[in-house]
Amino acid sequence: MNASEIMTRPVLATTPGASVRDIAAELLVNRITGMPVADRDGTVLGVITEADIMGALIEGKQLETLRAEDIMSTDPVTVETDATMADVMKVLDEEGVVRVPVTNRGVLVGIISRADIIRAALQPEFLSFA
């Protein structure tokens, strides 16, 4: 199984200039803990997470005045669509991240979370109950 078969798509992403307040609302509404930050061409520039937002709040910053680029993690790790499930698991484990953006020739096309990996691992079991 490869990344293109496991990934969630379409992927919810944001831009560097997006309001952190709006991003926080998107995270809550969609029940996710983070999202990629990409430019208009789909190149992943970073990732913004609940932890980044909480860190800004701890520092006393106002979410309305911040943009994604102000607090996002830069130099994000990504995987290509043809990465194997084992490769993706290794990246998640070694990098200590909860999610990894999936790219096709450098363009964002999906995202894989730890939950997606577990779901894929259990898929044959789920199918046997159908």
3D architecture notes:
With 130 residues, this protein is α+β, with helices and mostly antiparallel strands. It has one domain: CBS-domain. It is 42% helix and 22% strand. It is built from six helices and six strands, in the order ααββααββαββα. It has helices spanning 3-6, 20-30, 50-58, 68-71, 85-95, 114-128; strands spanning 34-38, 44-49, 73-74, 79-80, 99-104, 107-113. The strands form two sheets. A three-stranded antiparallel sheet has the order 1-2-3. A three-stranded mixed sheet has the order 4-5-6. The longest helix has 15 residues, at 114-128.
Brief digest:
The chain has 130 residues and is α+β, with helices and mostly antiparallel strands. It contains six helices and six strands.
For the sheet with most strands, the description reads: 3 strands, antiparallel
The strands making up the biggest β-sheet line up spatially as 1-2-3
Query: What is the H-and-E element order?
Result: HHEEHHEEHEEH
Domain module count: 1
User: Helices and strands: which structural class?
Assistant: alpha+beta
CATH fold descriptor: CBS-domain
Give the overall shape: globular
The average pLDDT score comes to 93
Number of strands: 6
Terminus-to-terminus distance: 21 Å
Strand content: 15-25%
Cα-atom Rg, whole angstroms?
15 Å
pLDDT < 50 stretches: 126-130
